[in-house]
Design goal:
The protein is an alpha/beta fold. The chain has 13 helices and 20 strands. It is 29% helix and 23% strand.
Length: 431
Amino acid sequence: MKPEIMDRVLLRGGIVIDPQKQTARRADVLVANGKIDAVGTNLERRTPSDVEVVDCRGKHIASGFADMHCHLREPGREDEETVASGTAAALAGGFTRVCPMPNTDPAIDTEAQIRFQIRRAAEAGFARVHPIGCCTKGRQGKELAEIGSMVEAGAVGFSDDGSPVADAQVMRRVLEYCKAFDVPVISHCEVRELVEGVANEGRVSTRLGLKAGPDVAESAQAARDVLLAEFTQARLHIAHVSARATVDVIRWAKARGVQVTAETCPHYFTLTEDALAGFDTNCKVNPPLRSEEDRRAVIAGLADGTIDVIATDHAPHLKGEKDAEFDAAPAGIIGFETAFSLGYEKLVMGEVLSLVDYIARLTVVPRRILNLPAAAITAGSEAELVVLDLKAEWTFESERVRSLSRNSPFLGWTMHGRISAALLADRLFRF
């Protein structure tokens, strides 16, 4: 996937989405030397003849998306994904900034490792990387990692994702320390003592004979962590919300003024535990797919703002790893290239969110939570744009996947809406 290097690009006739102003208006966007030069109508008449014109009529133009929860596997499992392959897949899905979790091998718990990931992304030239550092050394939940030096190196948040910070005193100290640097703690909510298996505890796991864990394993940890956030007055972000009770906990905490934000992922508002009926390990995720009641609660949480962000939790695994008994297969699915379309269908076409609000959950809100540069399509801003073809109908096929891994339950699905182009400074990518 090679970019076209352009000094001047005119995105002509698209509908420009501005979530901050809550507007969507038809306009041209002129980019010169990597920056937005002008936004207005009939710009083609006023531009030099050497400008590259991209016809965006019938399409929408938005700021690049930010994914605040993904897994790039480098260092340690470059056979599953690399920073280069992952950021290429992310860009094809509209994500111009991604935040990889630190559960690599070794874990990302030092300044040098943060700089390594950022450098690898710059060398690749696709989506930018803003690493999430470990809360504790080696993600062991015992001793705090070097949070300050990682912030200086470019870490934008901290998490032991894949593992909860089980010790409440350690979690308190993590929150207090991160408060000093104004960065969020991203909590993987799971009381592991309650989890005996790989599926949601309920009728489906009972019928299929799968070991399971109840949804309270997530919501109980969320309740503990929001109370600790209230006590420390620190910023807490709840990762991959999947359960109705967790939505209730977050809604209650926000009403109390706790500095808590939350994310969910497309598979939690698209699929339910019923997808496990065929024992397809591509439906094995952590937290697990839950009931229809939980799915509806997640959607309601998005609708009323209890859940702030849509993230992918892109988690690549090789086919050989997934081709195992359900209990033994690793949890996780790839998500960069399907996230926008799934959200567009379920949330916008489903009349849960307006298009402008949906784009905000992918752009403005995650950037605000992580203190990233604001998403703006205004003169003088760096060009970081995606072109959306909402009329497109396409099929997610294995041979078109840009990730090194293919573990997705959505292979073969026909979807609506996709990314047709991305512009990063003077680099134009067409998909």
